[in-house]
Amino acid sequence: MAHNPANRSATQERPSQGSPEVSIVVPCYNEVENVRPLVEAVERALPRHHWELIFVDDNSPDGTMEEVRRLAAEDGRVRGLRRVGRRGLSSAVIEGALSSSARVVVVMDGDLQHDESCLEEMVEALLKDEADLSVASRYVSGGSRDGLANSWRQSLSQGGTWLARLLLGVPLTDPMSGFFALPRHRFEAVAPALSGRGFKILLDLTMMMPTSEKLRVHDVPMVFRERQHGESKLGLKVMLSFATMLLQGACRRHPVLMAGSAAATLAGSAWLGRALGRRKSGRHGGAKVRARRSRLLRKGR
Ligand SMILES: Nc1nc2c(ncn2[C@@H]2O[C@H](COP(=O)(O)OP(=O)(O)O)[C@@H](O)[C@H]2O)c(=O)[nH]1
Ligand SMILES: [Mg+2]
Fold first, then answer.
1. What would be the CATH architecture of the domain defined by 5-253?
2. Tell me: the pLDDT tens digits for 214-271?
3. What's the pTM value of the predicted model, to 2 decimals?
4. 226 CA distance to ligand 2 centroid (A)?
5. Closest among 158, 216, 35 to 108, alpha carbons compared
6. Which residues sit with their C-beta closer than 6 Å to ligand 1?
7. Taking a C-beta distance cutoff of 8 angstroms, is the pair 51, 75 a contact?
8. Which of 100, 137, 194, 256 has most Cβ atoms within 10 angstroms of its Cβ?
């Protein structure tokens, strides 16, 4: 999308004054080798916007935060938020976004897997009020998920996307994308309702947005890159929390499903209770039969 300065409002005409118009929130854990190249990539990708980069680091042992501080000393547009005593991608994003005063908040991974060339189009769609949410999507023409570590991760991404759309009715081509942008006021409005758990903050956000208004989504095709440095933090715990989130969201959206799962739980407990009861009385019943049989034998009948 071409950048058109004529579309800017009066406050945007002085992009270098006041708070930045775009905050890019980057959750990071053990990304020491990636943070500097990321700053350089954003610099190249957004030459005409007044932006800031907020790295939210959960006290990484590899020195990520020290590197962020070095970058901040060189460039006032970079800052770091260091969290101690807790971990979590979603909660890191929430805290970073809530520390922003910009008009637009972008969420982007800190491992260079997200293609920064999507940034300008994502941001412009929001600044021009052509969309309520911009998503860098791997599942539109021109996008690709090939950079995911292996075929198992690719299936998980595709399966999760399918389930999220089917169960939750989210109007997104890539609800599992970690690269998206929205006006800060929208984020602020929905923030108190966010779970802050797990990995998939975009899904959580979309589920919490009011269903009464139609969300205008702008997809930008993204080729998801392979990781060059560091490693993925997606583990079993994170996946379980994603499954729980899907189920909770589905129950909230479909009361029938909630009633169904409650009924299934009740029926399951009743069945289990009866089965255990039968086993117990079966054991006692067997003892009674054995006692009667030995009484009869003793009487010689
Ligand atoms: N602050 C913070 N960032 C995290 C945490 N887990 C992952 N991240 C960051 O979130 C981004 C995506 O994580 P990654 O492990 O690459 O996920 P994948 O691309 O789905 O394999 C990266 O920038 C990570 O460093 C966490 O617990 N806390
Ligand atoms: Mg990654």
1. Alpha-Beta Complex (3.90)
2. 899 999 999 999 998 988 887 777 777 777 777 777 777 666 665 665 666 566 666 6
3. 0.80
4. 8
5. 35
6. 27-29, 31, 56-58, 87-89, 92, 109-111, 113, 178, 232-234
7. no
8. 137
